Amino acid sequence: MGAVPVRAQAEPLPSWNDGDAKKAITDFVERVTHEGIANYVKPAERIAVFDNDGTLWAEQPAYFQLAFALDRVKAMAPQHPEWKTKQPFKAVLEGDQRALAAAGEKGLLQIVAATHAGMTTEAFAKTVADWLATARHPRFNRPYDQLVYQPMLEVLAWLRANGFKTFIVSGGGVEFMRVFAERTYGIPPEQVVGSSGVVKFQIGKDGKPSLTKEAKVEFIDDGPGKPVGINRFIGRRPIFAFGNSDGDQQMLQYTAAGEGARFMGLVHHTDAEREFAYDRKSHVGKLDKALDEAIARKWTVVDMKKDWRTVFPAPK
């Protein structure tokens, strides 16, 4: 079955208010999907990439994968009595945000290594799935995977209906995101590009082969790593890219540098009532240099408060 022509569909993007952002998206898709016009792009080249944290789902007050890691520290603490006196684990167990912040990136890497490594990839996926089934966001009291953006789900679905292949390109852990990406976004695991740790192939005592996660970083898919990841795992330059922070700037630059029609978009978090309002000074999802470049180069900047009729899907 071929792509559904844009004009033949019902009103696209119903959760978007009419305005410049919605029009930029719909006009772009219309320009590249009609044969016989100058900007037509063959379906095989209709590659769309999306950041995950802050672009497809929420990311405040902390990245959701970090919330998972902190919960895992608490769950694993009985097997690690030394954590009661060892930082940064002591800070996690005592809820000491200041000490946790003081541990910095090195401390966070220690937490991720302790909670993500030493198990098979299958065991890790089950742990993530179990957490998603039970954990609740501290403000919204909803499962984390329900805090996805309804307007962006509509963009994903509409692009696919018009012959695009949609990818996640995110700084989050690739094996963490693959657990929920297909059922949440309709993006299969092989179309998820993310940061990754080293995995080791081995034959278990039962004679079955498996992959075990090790406490070593293999690839960081953030900032300048995003175009590198796109080249390594996708092999085509995107024509459509959406992000929300300075960590997405190079992905948007790489997309913009190609020939022909291009779409570069940023989600600007401006809605403190329905979600969160943050940008230049945020400790999570900082949007500063990328916002300046987007304005200067006339990329599409989505004003969440103004452009979205709704933010999250209705509770299930």
Topology:
Layout (H helix, E strand, L loop, with lengths): L19 H13 L14 E4 L13 H13 L12 H6 L2 H20 L4 H14 L15 H12 L3 E9 H5 L2 H5 L6 E12 L5 E11 L5 H9 L6 E4 L5 H8 L6 E6 L20 H9 L2 E4 H4 L9
Parallel strand pairs: 1-2, 1-5, 2-3, 5-6, 6-7
Antiparallel strand pairs: 3-4
Helix pairs in contact: 2-4
Task: Using brief descriptors, characterize the structure shown.
316 residues; alpha/beta; seven-stranded mixed beta sheet; 7 strands
Explain how this protein is built:
- Helix 11 links the parallel strand 6 and strand 7.
- The protein is built from 12 helices and 7 strands.
- 37% of the residues are buried.
- It has 316 residues and is α/β, with parallel strands linked by helices.
- The N terminus is likely disordered.
- It is globular, with a radius of gyration of 20 Å.
- The two termini are 31 Å apart.
- Helix 2 crosses helix 4.
Low-confidence stretches: 1-8
What class would the helix/strand composition place it in?
alpha/beta
**Global shape:** globular
Radius of gyration: 20 Å
Helical content (DSSP H or I, runs of 4+): 25-40%
The largest β sheet comes out as: 7 strands, mixed
Strand order of the largest sheet: 4-3-2-1-5-6-7
The SSE order reads HEHHHHHEHHEEHEHEHEH
Oligomer: single chain
- Tally the helices: what do you get? 12
Q: Can you give the mean pLDDT?
A: 94
Number of strands: 7
Percentage of residues in strands: 15-25%
Distance between the termini: 31 Å
